[in-house]
Write a structure and sequence with these properties.
about 375 residues; two-stranded antiparallel ribbon; 11 strands; about 20% strand; globular; binds nicotinamide-adenine-dinucleotide; binds zinc ion
């Protein structure tokens, strides 16, 4: 088992990474001296696979727990589902010292974390992420929240979990497309912060695609370490944390104009990262051969690299970028790269450069 610490003073916590850790859930919650009662919030795909094991582990260590199952998919990240969860928590008499376990992907983690942050003005919660994306990204760092009709993640809080338990065994049941989508975030960590990680991914992509246990443990631990370091330095995104948004301005806009239907998040940010790399070539002298290396790695991870926007979609994409919540005073600030492993935040991109990159149809030549 590997342990990564998220350094946030009194709110510091551990990320544990290893095979079969779900069976230790109860023991770890006992170690943290969490209260007697808890709700395990999960979704309709994950609950039948892992719900019982989570509840049994908690009960073995003397916790009174119940499983609260919400629908699967992005639409469950809504205030309506939050209300359903509050009602469930109240019905089972969860109190101030009770806690919530989020068992699932990023949707369950963001939703259950928000429920925990607000029920009785905040009760402790534990993340048990079961997708690759959730293990390397969404479960760490304390951003929790839900979507509104007007856009994604518009209601939320910074609310740190008490622990993150990444059971690598749960990744075995993840559908291939979801797994590959998580790889886009893994590659992102290499580009923004760790050239050696990027090179390791170039060497070990076949093993990673096979979901080899040792490779996964190494790589997930490294990604968590990077996220922990960044969040530890800038919890509420005053500066450094913005590097995690590399490729996300264009990626989010692509998701929005396709109504969250055509692309999974990781697919959209693969295209977004490549576009950002090309813009970086124009503006920061990011070497062209490195753009090609990034494209090649996404391709080997079987992630999309060609944007292929219809003419009518280009203005829609630009408009969607302008309503992103990270835009301030109408100006989009990009994260751009100097070289693989090093990025700069707050970069202004002239409209003509953006349009040229989007117009080529390809994010890579
Ligand atoms: N809080 C953050 O910092 C942060 C960061 C990145 C993304 N996010 C959010 O995360 C969400 C996306 O997360 P996601 O990609 O994990 O999606 P998800 O939670 O929808 O999971 C993807 C699909 O896989 C299923 N699934 C989950 N684990 C499984 C398993 N082990 N076996 C079989 N099926 C399984 C789910 O039921 C779902 O159908 C988005 O809402 C995004 O906004 C949050
Ligand atoms: Zn992302």
């Amino acid at each position: 088992m590997r342990i990564v610490k998220v350094p946030l003073g009194r709110r510091s916590y551990q990320i544990q990474i290893g095979a079969g850790l779900l069976n230790n859930l109860g023991r770890e919650c006992a170690r943290l001296k969490l209260g007697h009662r808890c709700a395990v919030i999960s979704d309709r795909n994950v609950a039948p696979l892992y719900g019982k094991r989570a509840v049994h582990s908690l009960e073995r260590d003397g916790f009174a727990s119940f499983l609260l199952t919400v629908p699967a998919g992005e639409t469950a990240k809504s205030l309506k589902t939050v209300q359903v969860c509050y009602d469930g928590l109240a019905r089972h008499r969860l109190e101030r010292n009770s806690f919530v376990v989020a068992l699932g992907g990023g949707v369950v983690g963001d939703l259950a974390g928000f429920v925990a942050a607000t029920y009785l003005r905040g009760i402790p919660f534990v993340q048990v992420p079961t997708t690759l994306l959730a293990q390397v990204d969404s479960s760490v760092g304390g951003k929790v929240g839900v979507n509104l009709e007007a856009g994604k993640n518009l209601v939320g809080a910074f609310y740190q979990p008490r622990m993150v338990l990444c059971d690598l065994t749960t990744l075995k049941s993840l559908p291939p497309r979801e797994y590959r989508s998580g790889l886009a975030e893994v590659i992102k960590y290499g580009i923004i912060r760790d050239r050696a990680l990027f090179e390791k991914l170039e060497r070990e992509m076949p093993k990673l695609l096979r979901r080899d246990g040792k490779t996964l443990a190494d790589i997930i631990a490294r990604c968590c370490q990077i996220k922990a370091e960044v969040v530890g330095a800038d919890e509420t995104e005053g500066g450094l944390r913005a590097i995690l948004n590399f490729g996300h301005s264009i990626g989010h806009a692509l998701e929005a104009i396709s109504h969250y239907g055509k692309y999974l998040h990781g697919e959209a940010i693969s295209l977004g990262q490549l576009a950002a790399a090309r813009i970086s070539s124009s503006l920061l002298g990011f070497p062209s051969p490195e753009v090609e290396r990034i494209a090649e790695l996404f391709k080997r991870a079987r992630l999309p690299i060609n944007l292929n926007l219809a003419a009518a979609q280009k203005p829609r994409l630009l408009r969607a970028m302008a309503v992103d919540k990270k835009v301030r005073n109408g100006e989009i600030k990009f994260v751009l790269a100097r070289r693989i492993g090093r990025v700069e935040i707050g970069q202004r991109v002239p409209p003509n450069v953006l349009q040229r990159v989007l117009a080529t149809g390809k994010t890579s030549s």
